[in-house]
Amino acid sequence: MIELLYWEGCPSHDEALAELREVLRELGREDEPVHRRSIDTDEQALKEKFPGSPTIRVDGVDAFTPPEGDPIGLTCRVYRLPDGRYSPTPDRGDLRESLERLLSTEAT
Questions:
Q1: Bridge-partner residues for 2, per DSSP?
Q2: What pTM was computed for the model?
């Protein structure tokens, strides 16, 4: 199951969803459902170990494991691009690689 966890206070989740669906199309997995789930409270964020919005998970595994010690909570998540810049959404190539790995593991 693919999930997009988000917090309404962060505006990048719609862009992340569009990019996620586009990458799934590129992988020939456009029929794979994406479940959007809003994280609304600090308690929910702690329970879900939510490192910020947007977070993409496949079968409960974060597609981009956050570094040890990164905060958990209602915040906007940032991703490091290959050129070192920061972005509110993951690099498409990195997302593609992560999904290929996680979805192939799902099938075994």
A1: 34, 58
A2: 0.92
How do residues 32-44 score in pLDDT, each as one tens digit? 999 999 999 999 9
What range does the domain containing 79 cover? 2-107
What band does 107 get if pLDDT is binned at 50, 70 and 90? low
- Per the structure, the count of domains in the chain is 1
CATH number at residue 102: 3.40.30
31, 44, 46, 84, 107 from 90: Cα distances, Å: 21, 23, 22, 12, 24
How far CA 96 is from CA of 21, 40, 52, 104, in Å, comes to 11, 28, 20, 12
Q: Are strands 2-6 and 61-62 parallel, antiparallel or unpaired?
A: unpaired
In this structure, what token pair is assigned to residue 48?
A: 């879900």
pLDDT digits (tens, 9 = 90+) for 56-86: 999 999 999 988 888 899 999 999 999 999 9
